[in-house]
Amino acid sequence: MKQSTISFLLTPDEFKLLASIVYLEPALDEVLSKVKAEEGRLRIKFLYEDLEDSLSALAHEVEHESAIGRRHQIFVLIGKLEGYKLLREHVQAQGKAGIKKKAPP
């Protein structure tokens, strides 16, 4: 059975936040090792299952973080990743026909 993946761009700061939770989610280490630079950001490719596990690890981290600025950064990243997680549900409900490609310039 083919596993679903998603690829998206992260800022270097978002990448550092994910790297800081590898101790909670060891599978994330392999994902982060395959990141590629693109347009001043970093392209990351997740299996949806790994994305869900990473969201759980981020939620745990934010519960134990005392620095308000860092908590805010983690909340923002969680929101972004939750959006990508919801995208999977949309694609499954609509099928590939529900997603339109950008028109060429």
Task: Give a quick precis of the structure.
By secondary structure, the chain is of the alpha+beta class.
Could you explain how this protein is built, in words?
The chain is an alpha+beta fold and 105 residues long. The protein has one domain (5-98): Methane Monooxygenase Hydroxylase, Chain G, domain 1, CATH 1.20.58. 55% of the residues lie in helices and 15% in strands. It has four helices and three strands, in the order βααββαα. Strand 2 and strand 3 form a beta hairpin. The longest helix is centred in the last third of the chain and has 27 residues, at 68-94. The protein is globular, with a radius of gyration of 15 Å. 11% of the residues are buried. The mean pLDDT is 86.
Beta-strand content estimate: 15-25%
Terminal residue distance = 36 Å
What is the chain-wise order of helices and strands? EHHEEHH
Return residue spans where pLDDT drops below 50 for at least 5 consecutive residues.
none
CATH class: Mainly Alpha
